[in-house]
Amino acid sequence: MELHFDAVYYEPQALDYPLGKELRKKYEDLPWIPIESHNRIPELSSSENREFGKLKQHLVLGIRKTHKYVENHKVSDWLVPYTSSGCRAMCLYCYLVCNYNKCSYLRLFVNREQMMEKLLKTAAAAPRPQTFEIGSNSDLVLENVVTGNLPWTIERFAAEGRGKITFPTKFDMVKPLLNLDHRGKTIFRMSVNPPEIIRRVEIGTSPLEARIRAANEMAQAGYPVGLLIAPVILLEGWKEMYAELIETLADSLCDEIKRSGFLEIILMTYSFVQNAINTEAFPNAPNIFDRSLMTGRGRGKYCYRNEVRAEAEAFLREQIESKLKMPILYIA
Ligand code: SF4
Question: Which ligand 1 atom sits nearest the alpha carbon of residue 205?
Fold first, then answer.
């Protein structure tokens, strides 16, 4: 898969780093526009909502300056800011839009050595082995198509790191990861949804079949693999769609995943900002904000009402128990 961009916005100091130089060459035919900071590009942040799709065509290069880890209590112990934030795909619910609004385009940070050093030091200093989530701000498998950062990260952490790293993805481009010396220290998590939701809501991501194939290949390459059914979106006909998804998983996941994998299930949350952007930028997309099922959760955010959540949760548990029999780590 090749990713095409229409322009690169860059902090000039980024070109002092090997990745900056490499990308300068790789995208030499594009316009390169110098910026003061990847966090402040007034000509982009002042764009109209309807230009969201156009903004996603840009690539932004910078140096990551904040390296603060946030405690987490799910698969990982810590959320780690890593080599990118933002993403080229356009899932209608993407939580990155809550953080970056229209500016949720792909930003690459060229100072990966510095980020890895901190990761290795923090891992070594922890009282017991920790798991670090390095993909909470972007999709690293997609990022890898541009940067090649993942094989470097996986092998370096395998050789020098203590504990584990993990990242989720909605993409299938795992070939460069299959023959790495990962030593089981990377937990790969594939996110899945019914094909119709992928096609209409997770715009620009890999189809379900390809995601399942990629998860199987990773498991067969010895990586610990988990699946995320996320986010569960209660569009009309959701019971049929998710029942079918679970059947497909039961039929096509390899034995390694069924035997030692795990499931995370996350029901969709949505925000006022996303609704505003989606309404203007994707007028023909399905409306995933259903007022009759959702309720406010503060600060412009919405989630499914308690009784709706309870019904979805009971349904999914029952389907998984009867068809897939994989352990559910949590339903959030
Ligand atoms: Fe956001 Fe992930 Fe979709 Fe990218 S793939 S737009 S990071 S939800």
Answer: 5
